[in-house]
Amino acid sequence: MNEIIAIICEYNPFHNGHKYQIDKIKEMYPDSTVLAIMSGNVTQRGEFALFDKYSRAKSAVICGVDCVFELPYPFSASNAEVFAKAGVYLAVQLGATHLCFGSENENIDYIISVADAIENVSRDEVLKLKKQDKSISYPKIIEKICGKDGKIFPHMSNLILGVEYVRAIRNYGNKIIPIAIKREGFGYNDLTVGEKMSASAIRKCFFDKGIMVSVPDSINQFYKELVDNKEYIDNNEIIEFLFRSVLIMSPEQIENCYDVPSGMGYFICDIASNSNNGKDFFEKLTTKTYTYARLRRVVLYSILGIKNIDTEPAYTILLSSNSKGREHLKVLKKQTVFPILTKLADYKRMNEKVIKQFEASSKADKIFISFLRNSSKPTDFIKKMPYIL
Questions:
Q1: Is the terminal CB of the chain with fewer CB neighbours within 10 Å at N or C?
Q2: What is the C-alpha to C-alpha distance for residues 238 and 298, in angstroms, rounded to an integer?
Q3: pTM over 0.85
Q4: What digits encode the pLDDT tens for the residues 321-351?
């Protein structure tokens, strides 16, 4: 059997830990086709990626992935539940038989047991806890309820996503088999320098020292070319842009957007008016109630006018592929009518839902390109074509 293994990822940037996962998949399933469903130019924490989505996809294919498809904005910059559902939905449309993810705990039975516990949480229990503590977050609610049954809700980011992937597979009634591979190296937000560094640490090291570390030898030269050609962005500049954009918005404008609870618009505008710069703004903004990631997402939703997010993506974009990936695409196109864009201008020929979603995502792409340090123009995104290796 030729297993089709999907990975939902960001590759910001692709590093040694990601290569380890790909190698393990190839070791476990030698004849498999590996599909990456990768965040576009905006990542789950509401941050813009270091390199553009096509370049990140190319680096993944050089390192062993067979085909890379985009998880478009705003699905790519959503909470774990929405992010996982969108990624799994695309995995289903792309013919995946397995879904592989890195996790701090590779015991799939444990991950499934936590998913079971969450599914058993009643609305009454949630309302009761919210009444006791109005500022309590959803993960904290689940932690308290699961704790009653002797289960420990996973605090670790990859494990949380693993649980949401299992829940999403069930939601779509699909027979995709989840596989957890133990995450090697340092944690998601750990800034320690080493052979298998976190993506956060690699980005910090790049901006502190101007070098890419803890990345596969096979893409070192490619990264060097991207840096030499100034095809990267600095999120510190994006933070300043977000801060200044908020200064000219009203609380009502912000609260009219997705995932903005009552009162947050006034809170955000007040903090912005009393901040010196973007860094100061986000430091003051982050609280026990509202995490940094959620606030980054909300601010970007507000600036881009994202008032709601559909249940699932209506399309995807092919970003990069090798010969094995192209063979899978040929088979896939005979089995499904799901829109897979290669030439971006073709989106205009699609249905209304695709057009609406594509144009929302393209706003984020234009902003991303405008912050590249080379001479690219915001409209250049529409000319992009997949990297074929």
A1: N
A2: 14
A3: yes
A4: 999 999 999 999 899 899 999 999 999 999 9
